[in-house]
Amino acid sequence: MARMHNPAxxxxxxxxxxxLAEWGWTPQQRLAWIEANxxxxxxxxxxxxxxxxxxxxxxxxxxxALQPALRQRIQLVSKCGIKLVSPARPGHAVKHYDTSAAHxxxxxxxxxxxxxxxxxxxxxxxxxxxxxxxxxxxxTFEALRREGKVRYFGVSNFTPSQLAPLHRRIxxxxxxxxxxxLHLDPLHDGTLDQCVDLGLRPMIxxxxxxxxxxxxxxxxxxxxxxxxxxxxxxxGIAPITLISAWLRRHPSQPLPILGSRRIDxxxxxxxxxxxxxDAQQWYRLWEAAAGREVP
Length: 295
What we know:
CATH class of the domain at 14-172: Alpha Beta
InterPro entries: AKR_Detox_Biosynth (IPR050523), NAD(P)_OxRdtase_dom_sf (IPR036812), NADP_OxRdtase_dom (IPR023210)
Strand content: 5-15%
Domain NADP-dependent oxidoreductase: 12-287
CATH architecture of the domain at 14-172: Alpha-Beta Barrel
Distance between the termini: 24 Å
Helix content: 40-55%
Protein name: Aldo/keto reductase
Number of helices: 13
Pfam families: Aldo_ket_red
Number of strands: 10
CATH superfamily of the domain at 14-172: NADP-dependent oxidoreductase domain
């Protein structure tokens, strides 16, 4: 396998906190979710400043404050750069991106307060910004690292050509991208090729295509679902385990993000660590996803 790096020490499966505000949990229930993830080996938690209308980080931090010692066992990931039109940010007149030094620093400081921590293990720029100045941003990242506020940096939803200028100025730790049996683009547009070339283990958001792998009624989703169910049955594993193993089989060794309140979902994804698909099995699912055999 390629020599891939994971400098931020992220767990093989990452817990996504995007919908935490929607779950309507008490601080004690949120803490129980954090602890249950840790119990099965999921120690990394993916956030963004905008999640839950700028509310999720505070909800997580409130729970973490009930057991502050847990901070030593987890990795906190956050993202910034999107400015939403929101009652929580009355100064935003139009949704836009901002990767200026002032905004990145302000966002980091707010995330630290909300999460009740003194540092982020990983900070990502949430979306490509047409006005991104790679020299300014690299300088900002270096300053935040010197100050001990952020340990590692990366990007999210960047194309290879958008990632390259920043990576040339400061070594990035990862790139977060969408990939699933219903979204194959990164396999063929150079995104995962670049990850292998640079040794970056990508984080994968929506690895189950937002659940459409299991609930979608279009012809493609039904075709993929049938193949997933058949292969999972043949291998004696859960469908989520199969999809996670299929993603992890790529030489870039992706880290799937599962944003579910159900610990059994994360547990089934973690079971993929004990499953290795051969090339024929991998391409069988690719063929179902692409709707054709390889050329």
